[in-house]
Design goal:
This protein is α+β, with helices and mostly antiparallel strands.
Length: 434
């Protein structure tokens, strides 16, 4: 079969890399892909993820099974379009995608189905939101969330009421996230360990992927603004067997069952961003696709054929699939970003050292995101986005993987390169102290 991967980030590069290893896959294509997918010999299509009709025509003509990476096409109904035209595609319907595309809808859904989440309220007017903040008894206990999609940046965890007022103004008055900030959710801040939990579902049954941990903040020690993600590791030692079972029963299965009860079919990847508090987990957010950079540490550890599970999800037969087989090693990913990310940044910086990374052993992997190959016969690669590369290392334990990944990073450079230097350190402290 031919597989079309929609998207241009390191998540999509990783998905394509993984499915290309399947004996059932003849060709992997990306729309639009990036410099790394081009260098790897895959076919990049010059088609925007917003041009659903062009994507539909291409997938039809080439008989593609399609996997959707980013949230935007899902929220805009690409799965509904492809399925109505008889095409095989993995992802939730537009209605199911509201779990991510509307934080207000997701909150109401969780309340309807008894899924644990923080207390919250919804506001359509900035002054009403600020009045609520003023009346709050918790000075630094408020999280401000834009209702709509904001590329992972629409959440502000506030340390004071002044920060909360400013966040409301930026979202609702300054429109830094466009229409996504027309409504905001003001949520009680939870304190604990934040973790990622991802499953695959065929609309009824679910299979969990390996556990992982994202690092959202831009700077070391979780400083700075939220980003799309600056690094990750897998497995996550903070999720033991008992907690894993609790999350599967009280959150993931409840979500799939709740959607089905409301006549909404969910087929694809369901991601829960959770806060572990004592012996419970609370949902901070739902996403309806694989996480980035979680994908970059989960899929390299998957020994099973991903395509097998993709097809079971599409066919509604996930209960017939065998348990996934996982590599016992630890994976650590560090995201290399442009200076200034997640705010303004420059593009076109020449990247050096990629050949050295490619020449390292099989335990080191590089997945591209914001890169472009200069079309001047030189083969030079330049930066073309905020998050530029994901460097991943597999190690025998967390310390080994951390050492390998940062050693590898020393080989690559461009003007203004920025990355966190503490990815995985939290897990090390937990493993040492319990």
């Amino acid at each position: 079969m031919n597989v079309l991967v929609i998207g241009s980030g390191a998540r999509e590069h990783t998905i394509g890399w993984k499915v290309s290893k399947s004996s059932r896959v003849k060709k992997v294509l990306f729309a639009p892909g990036n410099g790394g997918t081009q260098l790897a010999g895959y076919e990049n299509l010059k088609v925007s993820i917003k041009d659903h009709d062009k994507l539909l025509r291409f997938a039809t003509e080439h008989g593609c099974l399609t996997i959707v990476g980013p949230e935007e096409p899902l929220a805009n109904g690409i799965v509904d379009l492809f399925k109505s035209n008889g095409l095989r595609i993995l992802g939730p319907s537009r209605d199911a995608a509201r779990l991510e595309s509307s934080k207000v809808w997701a909150k109401e859904f969780m309340r309807r189905h008894g899924i644990p989440t923080a207390e919250s309220d919804v506001f359509d007017e900035p002054e009403a939101a600020k009045d609520y903040i003023a009346r709050s008894k918790k000075d630094g206990g408020i999280v401000v969330k834009a209702d709509g999609l904001a590329a992972g940046k629409g959440v502000v965890v506030c340390n004071s009421k002044e920060e909360a007022y400013a966040a409301v103004d930026k979202m609702m008055k300054d429109k830094v996230f466009g229409d996504a900030g027309n409504r905001v959710v003001l949520e009680e801040r939870l304190y604990g360990e934040e973790v990622s939990f991802i499953c695959m579902s065929d609309g009824k049954h679910i299979i969990p992927l390996a556990t992982s941990q994202d690092h959202k903040r831009a700077y070391d020690n979780d400083g700075g603004p939220n980003t799309g993600g600056m690094g990750a590791y897998s497995p996550n030692p903070m999720i033991d067997e008992k907690m894993h079972e609790w999350i599967m029963h009280n959150i993931m299965q409840k979500a799939i069952d709740g959607l089905r009860q409301e006549g909404i079919e969910f087929k694809g990847f369901l991601y829960a961003g959770l806060m572990l508090v004592d012996d419970k987990a609370y949902v901070l957010e739902f996403n309806v696709r694989l996480g980035d950079p979680e994908t970059q540490v989960i899929l390299p550890r998957l020994r099973s054929d991903l395509i097998e599970y993709v097809e079971h999800c599409i066919d509604g037969t996930l209960d017939e699939a065998e348990d996934m087989v996982w590599d016992d090693r630890v994976a650590v990913c560090v995201v290399l970003a442009s200076k200034g990310y997640p705010n303004e940044y420059e593009k076109g910086k020449v990247i050096t050292g990629l050949d050295k990374l490619a020449g390292m052993d099989d335990d080191v992997l590089v997945f591209h995101a914001g890169t472009r190959v200069i079309d001047d016969c030189s083969g030079r690669v330049v930066t073309d986005g905020g998050r530029v590369l994901s460097v991943v290392a597999l190690g025998n334990d967390m310390s080994d993987a951390i050492e390998k990944v940062y050693t590898a990073i020393n080989s690559v450079y461009w003007e203004g390169i920025h990355y966190r230097r503490d990815i995985g350190r939290r897990a090390l402290r937990y493993l040492l102290n319990g």
